[in-house]
Specification:
CATH architecture of the domain at 221-321 in chain B: 2-Layer Sandwich
CATH superfamily of the domain at 221-321 in chain B: CO dehydrogenase flavoprotein, C-terminal domain
Number of helices of chain B: 14
Distance between the termini of chain B: 48 Å
Radius of gyration of chain B: 19 Å
Number of domains of chain A: 2
Shape of chain B: globular
Strand content of chain A: 15-25%
Number of strands of chain B: 11
Oligomer: heterodimer
Largest sheet of chain B: 4 strands, antiparallel
Radius of gyration of chain A: 16 Å
Order of helices and strands of chain A: EEHEEEHHHH
CATH class of the domain at 221-321 in chain B: Alpha Beta
Chain lengths: 160, 323
Amino acid sequence: MKPESAVVSITVNGTPHRLEADTRRTLVDLLREDLGLTGTKIGCGQGTCGACTVHVDGVRVLACLLLAVTVEGGQVLTIEGLGTPDGGLHELQQAFIDRDALQCGFCTPGQIMSGLGCIGEGRANTAEEIRESMSGNLCRCAAYPGIVAAIADVAEGQGA
Amino acid sequence: MRPFEYARPSDLAQALAAAGPDTVFIAGGTTVVDLMRLDVLAPRRLVGLGDVAELRRTELDGDPVRLGAGVTMAEAAALPLVRERYPALAAAIDLAASAQIRNVATLGGNLLQKTRCPYFRDASSPCGRRRPGDACSALTGHLEQRAVLGASPHCVAPYPGDMAVALVALEASVEAATAAKVVTVQVADLFREPGDAPHKETVLGDGDIITAVLLPAPRGTSAFVKLRDRASFAFAAASAAVSLELDHDRVVAARIALGGVATRPWRSSEAESAVSGERLTPERAFAAGEAAFEAVARTHENRRGIALGARAVTAALLACRGG
């Protein structure tokens, strides 16, 4: 193994993986290129747009700003890991459809993963609070009213 | 990004021993990965601090309160003790970056974040902060947000962070480990003005590691105000943190710090003097904000920074009064 490589052990959507990666590999590239999980998108590649949002060890993070080697041993949840075992949608995915919370859809996986974090952190009590908590996710189609409504729907349904 | 080796020390002694030339420590990585991608940082070795348990050591019942430098911004801001006793710190963290970044970025890494000056971030532009001896490109180029305070002919880049500004007003310190010993440095003394050596950003050495943030018992109340170009997820156009002891409406003691307008987190004794012993009226608060810039010659370039900085101080002082 080259000195600029490392073995990374990582669990993605419940499945453990162990693979050799260049130390420069970011988590988002590892997910997309090595594991074929292309639901997580790369927008800006510099931590501004939020399209690459996934959960690591239970919190929402930006996969483009994390080197895979620094996530060693981590539990990763991506958009592919949501939904029911029989292929049904997660309730927040359904809420995005019901509320028309997307147009082109490119930012949507990141919006949904971030929205889950927003609800889980208890930051979805008012529209204003949701907007602040979701400010790390940009939507070029400006579907923001629908995104806020979808998150509010699910948060209310959970008694948040 | 240039190829690099990655080391993952399991304790602080190993981490300190891993320091060396062309070596960079990485904690949350939200600054380091960004700058490596831009070629602004190009280390041959990266040393991950994620397994160093000492950096997570937190003591909430101590005096001072100790927050491990490896604690994330989100974790620190969620502590009831921080929210109740150090509101300026909680606000500074809440208003910084985005939720995703706060979940990863650490307290130590946040303090050491780099300037947002576009010439620093463009590896092909001369920049004395990035490459010792280079001339400052921003001096002759276009930099909307120049440091009003603490600038030199070698660097006019503002320090971008929020948390350090709150920590200066709270008279907090950092604990740092060097190869030889553990040192404690007031956050107000941690950062250097650029002078003729802008690449020397702090008083710490290259291989030193910030191990904790130390918060003295709060005196009075505190507040942090951040002014920015949009409502959320933006760096400060100007910010101010105030720690204030009031006797009814009279100021017994004030500690005032400014951000976004200075080359380092800036404590203003001029602003403090302008309110000490005085009744805290809106007019007096604004006079204090203006006093922070009384030594600065007004130019077309610094008008905006002065106006915003003075108003940030005003708002933070009045927030301590409860409105």
